[in-house]
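> example.struct
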């Protein structure tokens, strides 16, 4: 694609990055076939190719409008288009640039700005956990729309003493997962303990930055990224920690991009690159131990695995994850359109509920055809979003493995 960037963009770091990405696009349109919003809305401007044109026009001097902003907002940032693109267009980075520039030039309505700020601050607030516990206590009395956002609370269970393991890893504290679904972290610690790996959370590490980054606060997100680097760095220096393990693929996808987001920061660029090299999804850590665990697990649990976009399109870990689940004895049920987004996408389901619910229901309809006993996934957002539309249990796969490991041998069954 030929470009002619405006003078204000031509010599900036963002302008140069965007120009290099734009020039790789060959207008082929393959991306439209795998774009969830294009499939739902049928509008070219709600496809990757259409949004690329909009961003190109802005960088070449056209004045963005609220319509431009809306089309960029509607993108789920699933990056399915990147998996499809034959030219290697880094659409995800381009739409980040486009959103930042448009946000600076197009004022949002008071209501929209307030909603986004409240979402961001609520998820990061220390009051989120007690508020979630209160919501879970009165969940049965909540309006349906709010009830969908409040998962039933389950006890995390006892944690093992893991300091004695020779192999040690760090986990991310995160922001909403410990409050909404504490069983995921607890299950991760127990399953890793079962294969001789000690897992702990580094003091001072918090939200990965994704919530702020995708809710118009990119500078705030960079502060969160630096705080995590500062928390992890001293613990990595002695070589006793072999990896930073992610059990929420959305967080894993964001942390694996720290090197990109901090590349212009001389104090953090190299540290971020070193840290990214140690970031692993929990499936990557468990996979080499599948045979060891398999001997303790039942066979034939009928399950559908929904691979989050941040797992399959951002990190390319769908094949490994599916093979791991098969190796652990799950009878995975195939379903159509596994590559498509479920509509969760962080705060997207709150900001664009109609599109999100249509994508959710399409996904659940495809999954239901296989009749699974449980739906497995690897990201808290997808799990909560899918669970809000089905009576079939939706769980993180690590939780189910943990529960099966903790069952007495005589009670284990397919």
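> example.seq
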């Amino acid at each position: 694609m030929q470009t002619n960037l405006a003078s204000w963009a031509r010599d900036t770091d963002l302008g140069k990055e965007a120009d290099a990405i734009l020039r790789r696009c060959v207008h082929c349109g393959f991306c439209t076939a795998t774009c969830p919003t294009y499939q739902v809305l049928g509008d070219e401007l709600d496809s990757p190719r259409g949004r690329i044109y909009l961003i190109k026009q802005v960088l070449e001097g056209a004045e963005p409008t609220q319509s431009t902003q809306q089309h960029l907002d509607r993108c789920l940032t699933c990056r399915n288009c990147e998996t499809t693109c034959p030219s290697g267009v880094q659409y995800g980075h381009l739409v980040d640039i486009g959103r930042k520039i448009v946000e600076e030039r197009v004022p949002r309505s008071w209501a929209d700005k307030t909603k986004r700020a409240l979402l961001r601050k609520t998820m990061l607030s220390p009051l989120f956990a007690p508020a979630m516990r209160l919501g879970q206590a009165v969940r049965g009395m909540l309006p349906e729309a709010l009830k969908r956002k409040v998962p039933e609370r389950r006890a995390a269970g006892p944690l093992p003493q893991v300091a004695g393991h020779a192999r040690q890893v760090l986990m991310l504290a995160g922001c909403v997962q410990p409050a909404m679904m504490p069983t995921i972290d607890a299950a991760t610690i127990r399953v890793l303990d079962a294969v001789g790996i000690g897992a702990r959370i580094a003091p001072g590490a918090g939200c990965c930055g994704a919530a702020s980054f995708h809710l118009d606060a990119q500078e705030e997100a960079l502060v969160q990224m630096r705080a995590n680097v500062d928390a992890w760095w001293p613990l990595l220096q002695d070589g006793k920690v072999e990896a930073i393990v992610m059990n929420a693929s959305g967080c894993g996808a964001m942390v694996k991009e720290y090197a990109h987001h901090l590349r212009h920061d001389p104090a953090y660029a190299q540290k971020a690159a070193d840290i990214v090299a140690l970031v692993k999804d929990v499936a990557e850590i468990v996979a080499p131990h599948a045979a060891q665990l398999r001997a303790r697990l039942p066979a034939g649990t009928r399950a559908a695995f929904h691979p989050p976009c941040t797992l399959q399109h951002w990190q390319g870990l769908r094949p490994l994850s599916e093979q791991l689940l098969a190796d652990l004895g799950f009878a995975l049920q195939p379903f159509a359109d596994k590559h498509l987004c479920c509509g969760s996408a962080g705060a997207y389901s709150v900001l664009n509920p109609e599109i999100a619910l249509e994508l959710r229901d399409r996904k659940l309809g495809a999954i239901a055809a296989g009749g699974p006993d449980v739906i497995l996934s690897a990201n808290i957002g997808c799990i909560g979003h899918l669970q809000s539309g089905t009576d079939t249990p939706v769980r993180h796969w690590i939780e189910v493995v943990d529960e099966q490991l903790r069952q007495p041998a005589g009670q284990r069954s397919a």
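> remarks
The mean pLDDT is 93.
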